[in-house]
Input
Amino acid sequence: MRKLYTTLAFVLCSAALAKAQDTTKILFIGNSFTGANDLQGIVHQFYDADKLPVVTTAYAPGGISVGDVAMGTMAHMNNPEVFKLIRSNDWDFMVLQDNQGRFALDSARFPSPTASKVVEGHIKIRDSFHHHHPCGKMVWFSGWGFKDEDTSMIKQITINYEVLNDSAKDVIAPIGYAWKRSIITRPDIDLWSPDGAHPDIKGSFLTAAVIYGTTAQKNVMSNPFMSGLPLDIATHLKTMAQQVLTDPAVKRKSNLNGVLPLSFNWDKTNLKGPSGKALYRWYANGKLVSSSSDSVFKPTLAGNYRLWIKDKDGYWQKSCTTAITIKPASVANTALNAIQVYPNPASTQLSLRNIPDEIALLNIYGTDGKQYTSLQKTAADMSIDVSNLAPGQYFLVFFDQEKILQQSTVIVKQ
Output
């Protein structure tokens, strides 16, 4: 009697998703732009004001960049402390802030790789974060320029973060967009500290408002937090943040819908993503295995699977990583039915012919379940010595390499 043992174990990140819903956990990695005015603390207070549980941690040593070669192991991409922090908690978001000057060259240009591995560094940290947090979201810190550059430097920084995201398909916190709007509409509100580079409390408040709106997906205007600022200034800055977060063009360029959850289903044969999307990319163990407009994918290899989708408006979303185990399919009926066992009954030798390649093990059991013989298959045609068996009825059982039962044949010892 043949039994089919093909199983796909499908384990969703339900526990991680439940934690994300209960308490949002955000890791900030950056330098003095993040450290100034305790940016993580301001974001925390935005969450507190909306009565949303949150945990925040920041690592922001002054002057450090993501990939500057001269910094050696101090550069974030090479720093063991950064990767230790990535592993330290069940993070929902990681906000990565680089030296904004590394994004301030002409469009689609970055410093020489011998000086700063900007894109490589961001992707390396992103990959580590996703490995340890299958449901977590990366947030790129697209910030501001120097005060004496007005808004021209902000424009270049914004463009180059969008260039980075052409490959990364993650989420950009559109901080620079909000700063630019504020500079144009209320030039009397100075967002910089006296050095013309770092933010003062107003600049950090605006930055935190954008990060809060990006990660919490909440209306910043309805949040009562003001960080001690005058009502009109706090209201203006929250208005600037909310405007960019809801601007259709900014949302698309920043991929703000990328923070929304995405799941896929298993129907015992195929993996299925949500229907009606423009593109589906399936990844197994971090490698692209399928890219098409078809929402259905049939996996053939065991591994950690993840889905990226692009909708018709250009937004990218990423699912959690799901562990899938696929056991080999049973041997085809035609191959099993071709096995010849003779003579039957047998007295001394039992001959077998046409044993399929997939069969690896042959066992003989008594009717009481006791195992009497176990042989590795060595050829398609074999003989089994049954001379030491007592007369009676037995079962000859064929197993594949995974020790999955494929065929059972009744034999009689004379």
